Amino acid sequence: MVRSLSFEEIKSIYEKHLTSDFHQSEIKPLAQIKRLYENRQYVCFGSFSEEALIAYAFFVPSFDGKFFLLDYFAVVKEYRSKRVGSDFLKKLVSESVSPSCILAEVEDPEYASDENDLLIRKRRISFYLKNGLHQTSIRSRVFTDHYVLMIFGSVSDNSAADALEKFYGILFSPENSDVFR
After folding, report:
1. Is 70 exceeded by the pLDDT of residue 89?
2. What's the total number of domains in the chain?
3. Whose CB has fewer CB within 10 Å in the chain, the N or C terminal residue?
């Protein structure tokens, strides 16, 4: 079952999972997530088996509802490699979010710190490719992290880059992010 999450559930996921599922440099402060959520600039979904959380996704919707930036997407550790992520992503696209386009930042393989990190980055890109997203020519930087932009939907790379710049304007100060076309 996929459903939207309350802030208390978001806080619990943040503390129990998100802080270990993502690089420290990628994790927004919980206070920022709370502010965005309260201002309806952040929507979060969980996938559940019975009552147990098995995956989660946090999005930033555009003001016009045409784009969603996938901020965090993860499968709980014990459910990984069991198609949970693919099934969850398909349900999100078909049932829970209805934008023209989903933008996903994926860690750029060119900036991998070692062979293991390179494999992880390539595996993430492969996951999104096999689940219907396509890789654009757009690259971005947030603080010290570098990303490849992937999209689900039929929009031009320029439109996707414009949308990403608007999202970054909501989430970060200008000196902390760049979009490269």
Report:
1. yes
2. 1
3. N
